[in-house]
């Protein structure tokens, strides 16, 4: 092999390596977000607190709901329901009517 052939191979290999790395870095640059996209994402993250609750807030809400459910169960067990009220009221009215008829 003469010097020109070796020189051409070395230059071609060197250019191939340079082109490979240039393509790699340009692809890497193209895959990155622009400043406008970055600012838009930052704004969405800042406003995420307004739309979504944290785990602590969810746990607090769950405990509040549990307390409310306990109170509802207590109210159901210790109060008179409307159908029971109507039944008792009707029975009392019938007794009063019977007393009025007798007396």
Distance between the termini: 139 Å
Write the element-wise H/E pattern from the N-terminal end onward: HHHH
Which structural class best describes the helix and strand composition?
mainly alpha
Low-confidence stretches: none
Gross morphology? rod-shaped
The number of distinct helices, counting runs of at least 4 residues, comes to 4
Main beta sheet: none
* Number of strand segments: 0
Q: Measured on Cα atoms, how large is the radius of gyration?
A: 42 Å
Mean pLDDT: 86
Strand content: under 5%
**Percent in helix:** over 70%
Q: Could you characterize the architecture of this molecule?
A:
This protein has 103 residues and is mostly helical. 88% of the residues lie in helices and 0% in strands. The protein has four helices and no strands.
Q: What labels describe this entry?
A:
mainly alpha
Quick structural summary:
By secondary structure, the chain is mainly alpha-helical. Helix content is 88%, strand content 0%.
